[in-house]
Design brief:
638 residues, alpha/beta, eight-stranded mixed beta barrel, 50% helix, 18% strand, Cyclic-di-GMP_PDE-like
């Protein structure tokens, strides 16, 4: 893989130009110094040759040798000659030693001459070279100094001009670095000064096309999931999704709840008489009423089960709550004015049955159908419950739930259990998922799926999240530096300013390595619903070093564009998609769609609720990176 250069183009060119100029100045200096030295030595040799010639001519005169001491010392002393001796084969005719102070003996020039007219005479000269005692003089070197100054000023101006010309190239290079760092959205549009302009415009166009392609991919994935699991007319779940959720629910031994079936009478006659448009409008009105009513219960599934039937799956609620809900629902539907030939007092009927873990899905649907037929036999708008023993029902009102939860929070908070998340590649531990539990008055441990709806209803979500996070932070400080923990937090808490301020202050007290081991988990449906409100909070958490996990992905059908928006690190699949996935092609299609949505991001997909090796093999083949479930390890207390 090619790596981007760390040195800017401008810096490269400036360094190159500066080096060239400096090298040129050095070459000129060295060449000038050598030439100056050579010129001085040649001048000295030429001058000494002249002195020797004069001495040779003087020796031709019979009285010349006696006259040398009169004039020659003065000449030699003026010529920087340190010593001069004239000797023949037998004796020294003349000897001169100057009194100059020589700072460095190594610079003295020595030479011997043979007199042309007197071959028996030899002249030995030691002289100081010209310019050896000269120091720098501004006046003498003014031209060279001015030339160097002009070169330096020109170099500075040239470098400044070069940087100005290449500023656009630097902008384009910096933009490329940011894109490689993953900040495509912030640098999608280029600066007007970027150069080359054609490259900048081409990059803008490619980013726009990439963004459109990603959005189209997200829309296509949503389209696949919508047509696989949703009813096209009402936007509610279809029969496939409803049966899948119910099957997953009854396979959990600790689960319980109710199934409600609403059927419209005289549907075919009304379609024939009024037309499909009027019939579709009636279905849409009913679906709106049902959708608003189920908002009070978490994890509820509303589906258009047949053409004129709606099915509702309500988990983890008591029979008392179901009865109140069904009465209110029937009263709301009765307010509608059905078109003819439907009778206003006998056009909608509701059947209710209860289930618990271990029941068969087919038997549950037979029971609710039987209850609905009994309601139809009454000859009026009504509802009927299947006569079934449901000893699992441990009815608690809001007062009892409030008392139990308040007692739990007062006594130190809920119990925390941990379950490992295992990597698919090498079966190594990735992190631990923290699961909250509370103990009731009888000493039984209650799972979060049973009491979290009550926590929201009594208004204790913020207190509960605060207690769980406080225990998690304490656990992070005490445990090994290699362990990371995933903790769930509700959107109710993330929308509370006081909670966010408290959470920020607590996290700021922890070092960065500890924060890197903390993962916050948010439900997908609530995240998408309140995305604009909690997006700044999520960015603060990720900015501090924490990781973001989106849980229960696939419980509702929503667009996956939020993955790039919030830059999620992990996506946890809803356990209903994982249960018996080796036998459900539609669930495999959904997981493939989710993996495709995460392909162009850093988000990794994690499977939750893996129970069998067959499920795990299929998930590995599909491409999930990790899994959590009892196949690997059960929940253990921290």
């Amino acid at each position: 893989m090619r790596k981007a250069s760390r040195m800017k183009l401008t810096n490269r060119l400036v360094a190159f130009v500066t080096m060239i100029v400096i090298c040129a100045i050095l070459v000129i200096f060295i060449g000038g110094a050598l030439s100056f030295r050579k010129l001085g030595q040649d001048s000295l040799v030429h001058y000494l040759d002249g002195v020797v010639t004069v001495i040779d001519q003087e020796l031709t005169d019979p009285q010349g040798a006696q006259a040398l001491p009169r004039w020659l010392p003065t000449l030699l002393q003026a010529s920087n000659v340190v010593s001069l001796s004239i000797s023949d084969a037998n004796k020294t005719v003349f000897d001169f030693n100057g009194n100059q102070i020589v700072p460095d003996p190594n610079i003295i020039y020595h030479h011997q001459y043979q007199l042309p007219s007197h071959p028996d005479y030899q002249v030995t000269i030691a002289a100081i070279p010209l310019y050896s005692e000269f120091t720098y003089s501004l006046g003498a070197m003014s031209s060279i100094s001015l030339a160097i100054l002009v070169v330096i000023v020109g170099l500075i101006r040239g470098v400044h001009w070069l940087r100005t010309q290449l500023y656009g190239s630097e902008l384009l290079e910096e933009r490329g670095r940011m894109i490689l760092a993953g900040r495509v959205e912030q640098y999608a549009e280029g600066n007007d000064y970027e150069w080359p302009a054609t490259a900048s415009l081409a990059l803008d166009q490619l980013i726009r096309e990439l963004k459109d392609a990603r959005q189209e991919r997200s829309r296509f994935d949503t389209f696949i999931r919508t047509h696989t699991f949703l009813d096209q007319l009402t936007g509610t779940a279809n029969r496939v999704l409803f049966d899948s959720r119910l099957q997953s629910m009854v396979q959990d031994q600790d689960s319980h709840g109710a199934v409600i079936l609403l059927r419209l009478s005289d549907w075919e006659e009304m379609c024939t008489e009024q037309g499909k448009t009027i019939a579709d409008e009636l279905l849409q009105e009913i679906s709106v009423i049902l959708s608003n009513f189920i908002q009070r219960f978490p994890d509820t599934v509303l589906a258009r089960y047949f053409d004129a039937e709606f099915a509702i799956l309500i988990p983890q609620q008591s029979a008392k709550e179901i009865k109140i809900f069904t009465n209110q629902l029937l009263n709301a539907v009765e307010r509608l004015s059905p078109p003819s030939p439907m009778e206003k007092d006998n056009w909608c009927h509701i059947g209710v049955t209860y289930f618990h873990g271990g029941d068969r899905r087919g038997r549950i649907m037979d029971e609710v159908d039987t209850a609905l037929r009994s309601s139809q036999l009454q000859g009026a708008n009504s509802w009927n419950s299947f006569n079934k023993d449901h000893q699992w029902d441990k009815s608690r009102g809001n007062v009892r739930w409030r008392t139990l939860i308040d007692k739990t929070l007062t006594q130190g908070g809920p119990l925390l259990y941990q379950q490992p998340i295992i990597m698919a590649e090498d079966d190594q531990l990735m992190s631990y998922a923290l699961l909250a539990r509370i103990i009731d008055d009888n000493g039984e441990i209650i799972k979060a799926s049973h009491f979290m709806s009550a926590v929201e209803q009594v208004g204790y979500s913020i207190r509960f999240d605060r207690a769980v996070i406080a225990q998690t932070l304490l656990l992070l400080k005490q445990q090994s530096a290699e362990n990371s923990y995933t903790v769930n937090v509700t959107t109710i808490s993330l929308r509370d300013k006081q909670f966010v301020k408290w959470l920020r202050d607590e996290l700021l007290q922890l070092p960065r390595p500890v924060l890197n081991r903390l993962l916050f988990e948010v439900s997908e449906s609530m995240l998408v619903k309140h995305l604009d409100a909690i997006r700044p909070v999520l960015r603060v958490l990720t900015g501090l070093g924490c990781k973001l996990v989106v849980s229960q992905a696939g419980r509702t059908i929503v667009s996956t564009y939020y993955i790039k928006d919030i830059q999620a690190d992990y996506i946890k699949l809803h356990r209903g998609l994982v249960r018996d996935i080796h036998q459900r092609q539609e669930n495999q299609l959904f997981v493939r769609s989710m993996l495709g949505a995460c392909a162009n991001s850093d988000a990794k997909v994690i499977a939750v609720g893996v129970e069998t090796n067959k499920e795990w093999r299929v998930l590995q083949q599909l491409g999930v990176v990790a899994a959590q479930g009892r196949l690997f390890a059960a929940e253990i207390k921290t």
